[in-house]
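User: Predict the structure for this protein chain, please.
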Amino acid sequence: MGTMSLVMAVMFSSLLLGICLVQLRKGDWQFREDRLITVLGCIFSLTTVTLLLSPIWMEYAGAGGTVVVYNDNGKVEAANPMALPCWSNCIDISNTTEFKRVLLSGRVKPITDNPKVRDLSYSGYFWIEDPKSFFESERDCLLRVIPAQSSQEDTTRCLTARVEYYLYEMNNAHSKELALFYNPRDPQQVVRLDALIKDNIAAPLKEHGIRYAGLYSFDVQ
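Assistant: Here is the predicted structure, written as C-alpha cells:
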C-alpha cells in the first residue's frame, strides 16, 4: 500500500475526530441524551471510516486464501487466513483450502521393448497445505507479474509448475515401472500407481508446502 494513501487516511480520520471533539465541547447541553447521541454518532462515523479505509493498511484474504507478510529478504513474518496489517511486502495466497483441490495430470511414454505398451496418462489432486513454505519456495514465481498481490490464477500457475516438475522427474526415473500399468479398471493397479506417485513426489512437494491428495484416475492410449 502506498505511503501517501496511508497519510491521507490518517489525516482524514484525524479531521473527523477533530470535528467530533469540537461538537462535544460546543455550547450548553440541555439534555444528557444529546451528548450521548453525539458521542455515539462520532463513534459510528469513525468506525465506518476506519472500515472503509482499512484496505489501505490491511491486506484481506480472498475466498480460501491466506495473507502472507514477508520481509525484504523474502522470509515470511506472519500468515493469516483472514487479514493482516500490511502496506508493503504482502501477498494473498489464494486457492489454498482442501475443498479447492487442484486436479493436475501427467503423461508418459514408458520405455520398454514390449510393443503392446501404450502411452500412460494419470491425474491426481494437489493443494497448498502450508502457505508459508509455499511462498518461500515459490516466491519468484508468485511475484513475477504483480509483486504486491496474487490471484487464484497466479497461485494455480505456480502450484502447477512445481507439481509438473516432480511428475516429469518421476516419469523419467520410473519409466519401466510405469509400463506395468495397462488396465485402469483394475483396482490393484490403481492402488499401486497411487503408491508409486506418492512415494516419489509427496516428500519433495511437502518441502514446498504442497500436499499430494491422491490419484484421481489413469488411462492408457
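The CA atoms of residues 10 and 19 lie 14 Å apart.
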